[in-house]
Amino acid sequence: MKILITGGAGYIGSHVVKQLLELSSCEVTVLDNLSTGNKATINTLEKIRDFNFLQLDLKEFDKINQFLTEEKFDAIIHFAAYSIVSESMQNPLKYYLNNTVNTTNLIECAIKSGVKKFIFSSTAAVYGDVQENVNIKETFATNPINPYGMSKLMSEKILQDASKNFPDFKYVIFRYFNVSGADMYFDKDNLCPRIGENHNPETHLIPLVVKTALGKRDLLNIYGDDFKTPDGSCIRDYIHVEDLANAHIEAINYLEENKSDIFNLGYSKGYSVKQIVNAVKDVIKIDFKTTIVDRRAGDTAFLVADNSKVVSTMKWKPKFDNLELICKSAYEWEKTI
Ligand SMILES: NC(=O)c1ccc[n+]([C@@H]2O[C@H](COP(=O)([O-])OP(=O)(O)OC[C@H]3O[C@@H](n4cnc5c(N)ncnc54)[C@H](O)[C@@H]3O)[C@@H](O)[C@H]2O)c1
Ligand SMILES: O=c1ccn([C@@H]2O[C@H](COP(=O)(O)OP(=O)(O)O[C@H]3O[C@H](CO)[C@H](O)[C@H](O)[C@H]3O)[C@@H](O)[C@H]2O)c(=O)[nH]1
């Protein structure tokens, strides 16, 4: 099978590439413009086994069309996007152009070139503000409160419409909750992640907490402690990147026999920002400073998945549903960069 991974030099895409290289005999091609991804990640992955890497921007419509027509992929896993909520509030068109317009072109080229399976990275941000303390099901209303979430929801709709029109073109849409942790690679008994999260600037909570613990930052800002949650800080569902990546491998098999569908990817478990800070302190036994600052624009109080659909429908079994392991792997990775 020939698989194209867009955004495979990025955080999540690289973990899926790693698993495909290690667990399958698929011919893997990564397409990435390296805007937020890293060439060093590609170099690391090349040590596992050979694959093709093409540095290209999805906005190059003619080149994308020609490339897909020539290569005739069986499946596409589409990660390439911008994904910082606050940036999308300041520069919405940047998000609609990259996440929605470029995705629409990719879908069209995929269908024209005979791709049969398309796996799409969507987000819990499509749900918007939900009632607190209720785990979110895929059937809940979608009301994004930021352009990032809307850019992904629009892509979901476009993908669904395209597939209705071309029934041989099937999709899985995954709505990720908060992806975290790093490669669970062990050298003897030591956890030594080879790849992990490396954004510049970094905006995600867990890497920022471990950077602070390592003294790379002076203190950690907690964005608001006046939310309607037990300790006042926001609650999220943190899923280990290895488990999340593995669901994509399952999705390729799933689409052999099953129809297109949408699935949440989370653990159905929420932790507050303050609980994450304490978990990192407990795991790595280093104290550091935190300060409460104003809420961040676009943040919602509570985002926790109901993952019963993916668990009951796919052969997906999470292996790292453990906050300690998430924090430990993020910390071990952060020490290497
Ligand atoms: N990280 C999370 O917690 C999270 C949560 C929900 C959804 N997602 C989604 O998952 C996907 C991957 O997220 P990530 O955290 O790995 O992000 P990332 O920024 O690390 O990876 C995105 C990759 O896509 C590439 N890219 C972006 N625009 C491109 C373009 N026009 N052409 C070619 N390559 C392009 C970047 O260079 C990068 O390598 C994104 O679609 C994101 O919206 C992430
Ligand atoms: O320095 C920080 C960074 C984050 N936070 C808080 O930590 C929580 C998690 O924030 P992240 O930036 O790590 O993640 P988000 O929940 O904002 O967003 C992530 O998960 C979303 C879905 O839940 C989207 O998919 C999005 O793409 C992805 O970045 C939020 O309450 C945020 O306010 C802080 O308090 N301090």
UniProtKB/TrEMBL annotation:
Its EC number is 5.1.3.2. GO terms for molecular function: UDP-glucose 4-epimerase activity. Coiled coil: none annotated. It catalyses: UDP-alpha-D-glucose = UDP-alpha-D-galactose. GO terms for biological process: galactose catabolic process via UDP-galactose, Leloir pathway. Pfam families: Epimerase. Its cofactor is NAD(+). Residues 3-266 form the NAD-dependent epimerase/dehydratase domain. Keywords: Carbohydrate metabolism, Isomerase, NAD. InterPro entries: Epimerase_deHydtase, NAD(P)-bd_dom_sf, UDP_G4E. CDD domains: UDP_G4E_1_SDR_e. Pathway: Carbohydrate metabolism; galactose metabolism. Belongs to the NAD(P)-dependent epimerase/dehydratase family. Homodimer. PANTHER family: UDP-ARABINOSE 4-EPIMERASE 1, UDP-GLUCOSE 4-EPIMERASE. This is UDP-glucose 4-epimerase. It comes from Halarcobacter mediterraneus. The gene is galE.
